[in-house]
Amino acid sequence: MSKNETIIRILATSDLHGKMVPWSYAVDQEDADGSMAQLSEALYAYRTEHTVYIDAGDLIQDNSAELFLNDPVHPMVQALNRLDCDIWVTGNHEYNFGIEAVQKTIADLDALTLTGNVYLPDGSPLAPGYTILERAGIRIAVIGMVSHNIKRWDAKNLTDCEVTDMLDETRKIIDSIQGEYDVLIGAYHAGINNECSNRNTGVTDICNACPEFDLVVSSHEHVLIPEKYINNVLVVQNAPYASTLSVIDLSFVREDNAWKLCGRKAESIDVGKYPCDPELLELMRPYHERARKDATIEIGELRTGPLVEQPEVPGVSRALLEDTALIDLIHLVQTHYSQADISITPLCAPLDATLSEGMIRKSDTARIYRFPNMLYRVSMTGAQLRKYMEYCAQFYNTFRPGDLTVSFNPDFKHYNYMIFSGVNYEINISKEPGDRIEHLTWPDGTPVKDTDRFRAAVNYYCANSCLLHYGDVFREGEELPVLEEADIRSDLGGVRELIIDYIRNVKHGILTPEKNENWKLTGISWNPAAREAAIRLLNNGTLTLPCAEGGSINSRSIREEDLPADSYTNDRRVSDGNS
Fold first, then answer.
1. What is the per-residue pLDDT for 156?
2. Which fold has domain 297-525?
3. Which ranges in 130-199 belong to alpha helices (H)?
4. CA 47 → CA 51, 228, 416, distances in Å?
5. Which residue from 257, 462, 483, 507 puts its CA 20 to 30 A from 220's CA?
6. What does the DSSP assignment read for 102-134?
């Protein structure tokens, strides 16, 4: 390469979520798909003379990272410092623990923190919105922001802070630094698309409004995007838990005494293929031992059966198709501690989650409830409840004659689908979205009236995403549910910690599966012989459920025409089956 040509390499990660070594503390087992220890070796392999390493946030939450919040320096901060990170952007989950925890993380990091749309109570910025670095004489401008939906998701922790629109702040910065850079990079803790019907919370809006960007590092959605162009802006996004590394090469040529960008190329590296950095492993060893010891604390015993039976259709949890003891345990916990009339929860666990008979350890509660959500109580009406239920029911694709399995809307995330307790209801999936909730009654059979007012227990993410603000469920001008109490029993912790306390102190260490069978799917009618054949062929691997790109759940049903001609003969039909 001549002296008039050069390549700047950008290395990017995000959503590291406490994965310091190849171990998942939630389930207390080895997980070598990625970790900071492996990432260290991958970064070493891909660093060049002219490299900038950017991480786009969610560092100190998940995988038991919360255990170390009061340590002098968080182990994930120590690890990122060892990886010589140049720029870090705060993620939404950093704000779960209060603004002081965010400020401490920033202070302890060697990397420069960029977050140009969060302002402290005194009006000063939490961190700069941009910086200009230089590599090989090339001026590299980097702008960093976090989704302004954090004001919804962590409203209590940001009461006295101002969180501004990412695009508004970005536009101001770009306009102010014209002529000061040779290449422009955005690092956003935000996904590709907007969330909560809130504009400019996805990088698509940013790229469309700011074509000046040459590269945008997206994050937050946990979806791998090795290379994507939006309005001619190169966009990359990593998978979570340090499992991938984005490598972007920006080629420059010197013309008229100035550097011009002439090429962009990106690829995603599988970090799980790399060995661990032994020195980083040793640095993390005491934290690893503390997390493992904490994970194995026994809290009780499950007797008389599992919380979720094995799925009939492989890959489709029964919790999404019928009432289960796992979901009803969450409802019992939320209702007990909130003293609410009804309980609302998603499946806050992996789609294949269950809990089998035997001793229950602290780590097992993550199989029940993965996320560190706080519990809220809100006041709402019957009309608001029905509206929210109809919104959630769009999770299911409409059942069509010839379908042999239930399928799910790929544009509706399973963690936004809520299951309700304290009322009885049916979801008729043969009807179109918006008209599916039927026979909505109180437990005594009395219909739920639009004018009924009651209290509901719901986790803080769901409350702030859907109930307490205008967005996907409620539109401007409509009456919103009202927050009665936030962070219920915060002395114990979030919902996961409430589950632990419930097993220990309410159930006295003895848990048995309990189901109230208060809801079901209806509108299903299939040929029983064809259905039986489909289940057999799915379980032996002859058929596989069709999933949308990047999806973890089937987006299309197996249909009769998908079956081999000789796989069944009976054409009788059965209505309102579940699966």
1. 84
2. 5'-nucleotidase;  domain 2 (3.90.780)
3. 150-153, 166-176
4. 6, 23, 39
5. 483
6. HHHHHHH-SSEEE-TTEE-TTS-BSS-SEEEEE
Provide the 3-class DSSP secondary structure of residue 199.
Answer: coil
Distance CA 454, CA 451 (A): 10
As a whole number of angstroms, the distance between CA 93 and CA 76 comes to 14
Burial class (CB in 10 A: 0-12, 13-18, 19+), 303: exposed
To which residue do tokens 């054409």 refer? 571
Please give the CATH superfamily to which domain 5-291 belongs. Metallo-dependent phosphatases (3.60.21.10)
Nearest to residue 365, comparing CAs of 490, 512, 497? 497
121-173 pLDDT per residue, tens: 999 999 999 999 999 999 999 999 999 999 988 888 999 999 999 999 999 99
Say if residues 145 and 115 touch (Cβ distance below 8 Å). Answer: yes
Two structure tokens written together for 298: 């026994």
Contacts of 143 (CB under 8 A, 6+ apart): 114, 116, 129, 130, 170, 173, 174, 184, 185, 186, 187
Residue 553 has a pLDDT of: 84
Q: What is this structure's pTM?
A: 0.74
Q: Are 554 and 547 in contact (CB under 8 A)?
A: yes
Dist. CA 159–CA 172, nearest whole Å: 25
DSSP 8-state code for residue 463: I
| Token pair listed for 413 | 């995330």
| Residues 476-534: tens digit of each pLDDT | 999 999 988 877 887 787 898 899 999 999 999 999 999 999 999 999 999 999 999 99
Burial of 199 (0-12, 13-18, 19+ CB in 10 A): exposed
Q: Residue 367: in which H helix or E strand, if any?
A: helix 365-368
Return the residue matching tokens 């008979």.
357
Residue 540, classed as helix, strand or coil, is coil
Residue written as token pair 């437990």: 443
Token output for 457? 């227990």
Long-range CB pairs of 109-112 (<8 Å, 24+ gap) are 109/77, 109/80, 109/81, 109/85, 110/81, 110/84, 110/85, 111/55, 111/80, 111/81, 111/85, 111/86, 111/87, 112/86, 112/87, 112/88
As a whole number, mean pLDDT of residues 347-376 equals 84
Strands 525-526, 574-575: parallel, antiparallel or unpaired by DSSP? antiparallel
Q: What is the pLDDT of residue 570?
A: 62
pLDDT at 243: 97
237 and 221 in contact (C-beta within 8 Å)? Answer: yes
Domain ranges of the chain: 5-291, 297-525
pLDDT, average across residues 30-47: 97
- Cβ(456)–Cβ(468) below 8 Å: no
Token reading at 481: 């549910």
Model pLDDT for residues 439-452, shown as the tens digit of each residue: 999 999 999 999 99
Task: For residue 481, give the nearest of 342, 371, 373, 372 by alpha carbon.
Answer: 342
Is residue 227 within 8 A of residue 267, CB to CB? The reply is yes
